[in-house]
Write a structure and sequence with these properties.
428 residues; alpha+beta; 2 domains; six-stranded antiparallel sheet; three-stranded antiparallel sheet; 12 helices; 11 strands; 33% helix; 12% strand; globular
């Protein structure tokens, strides 16, 4: 995809409609129908999205930010963003730059003024130079909690608004109607309008690299030959062609906290979004079923919840992970160090965050997101169900988990036993 102009192959719309109808977010039409039937709508009484007390990380920190107890640097936009990230324990090196106009602030976004995203496993921050700050904070019971606010001028207080407008995209079809997170991959036109779109409702590490990064900058060393990053599109004689849009050519990277949009941050971001979305979907379905039937699920409801639980655990164990190309990826040292600084190690130093980056992302193919807010906050009965399924998956000869060797299963089990007390309590 690095030639000056090349034809762009796209799906026809009949194929797109078929894929949406058959697969949905989890690749399972039965599950998608179940979620719709069991009221994924956040305003349904089972969920009461706007009425429940909030327990997400940003809401907890907000009083200290508003009062000035946590001081933020207001000397410039860039310094404000950097100090906010520090307060939220989000590394600036997690920065991803997106130049397609696929956000609430789309009039401000262009190849000349990319939007920056920053993240850890529980919090996501968006910022467009000259624009507002957007926050998505994961609440274990409600999913994404969305905030938006202006960068204050010197000495002015923060005026933080819980956003309803964000729900127009983040609680609709792209997220299975629950308050989740989206990753769009598009071919942007010269002024950022989308000329073609990919991956639709799908998030996570199973998305082919050929369909990723459209409208995003990608920096760092890797051997991924075909992807949609660093490109814009145009039509010529009715054919959609693409041309390079190198990072930093049409804007100054010095306007941002760091000069990267690193490949490692991209693949970690993808995995986390996929995990959080699936955790949110599972929480909403389990709660809706309990609202309808209490503790006594019907046979059909049990099948639905068990199916979605298995899908979630399969994701957790990287069953459908797209392998890295020969030569793998390297990743920006600053981001790599920041990511590993949040390790939860065993006594002998092993961690689920340990990276492979040759054939696969991680050395141990069990998601470190078991230490996230989304997983930790599962309702007790749902968490027990998930942990029991995890235990079954790690048994020798468990069908569907043949990608994990006996030794890797033993390693994962040992790490979980030492770092995830809830898992250890469920083991015989």
């Amino acid at each position: 995809m690095n030639k000056e102009a090349q034809p762009h192959g796209s799906w026809n719309w009949l194929t797109v409609i078929a894929v949406i109808g058959v697969h949905g977010l989890f690749g399972n039409s039965h599950v998608v129908r179940a979620i719709e039937r069991h009221h994924a709508d956040p305003e349904h009484p089972a969920h009461a999205y706007w009425d429940r007390p909030l327990t997400d990380p940003f809401t907890k920190l907000m009083p200290q930010l508003r009062s000035g107890e946590i001081a933020l640097d207001q000397s410039s936009e860039k310094q404000f963003v950097t100090s906010l990230l520090e307060a939220l324990e989000i590394p600036p090196s997690s920065q991803l730059l997106v130049f397609s106009a696929t956000s609430l602030q789309q009039p401000r976004i262009s190849p000349r003024n990319p939007r920056a995203l920053y993240f850890n496993e529980n919090l996501y921050v968006g910022w467009v130079p000259g624009g507002q700050i957007e926050i998505v904070s994961i609440d274990p019971q409600l999913g994404g909690i969305f905030y938006i606010f202006d960068i204050p001028e010197r000495s002015q207080p923060l005026r933080i608004e819980r956003s309803e407008r964000c729900m127009n995209c983040h609680a609709r079809n792209l997220t299975g109607r629950t308050p989740g997170l989206t990753i769009k991959s598009v071919i942007p036109g010269p002024n950022s309008g989308s000329l073609d779109a990919f991956r639709l409702e799908t998030t996570g590490h199973a998305v082919p690299f050929e369909e990723r990064f459209g409208g995003w900058h990608v920096s760092g060393r890797h051997r991924i030959q075909k992807h949609l990053g660093n490109l814009t599109g145009y039509f010529k004689n009715g054919e959609l062609l693409t041309k390079p849009n190198p990072m930093g050519e049409r804007f100054d990277v010095k306007d941002y906290p760091v000069p990267t949009s690193d490949i490692l941050a991209h693949v970690i971001f993808e995995h986390e979004i996929g995990f959080n979305n699936r955790a949110i979907e599972l929480t909403y379905l389990a709660r809706a079923l309990a609202h309808e039937s209490g503790d006594s699920l019907t046979e059909e409801q049990e099948i639905e919840l068990s199916t979605l639980t298995r899908d979630f655990v399969r994701y957790l164990f990287f069953v459908d992970e797209v392998g890295l190309p020969e030569g793998g990826i390297e990743g920006d040292p600053a981001y790599r160090g920041a990511f590993l600084s949040r390790r939860v190690p065993t006594a002998d130093g092993r961690s689920l965050r340990d990276l492979d980056l040759k054939a696969q992302i991680f050395q141990y193919r069990c998601s470190y997101m078991v230490h996230s807010v989304a997983f930790d906050g599962f309702a007790p009965t749902l968490k027990a169900r998930v942990l029991e399924e995890m235990g079954r998956a790690l048994q020798e000869g468990a069908p569907g988990y043949e990608h994990l060797s006996p030794s890797e299963k033993a390693d994962i089990h040992a790490i979980l036993m030492e770092t995830l007390p809830a898992y250890a309590e469920k083991q015989p």
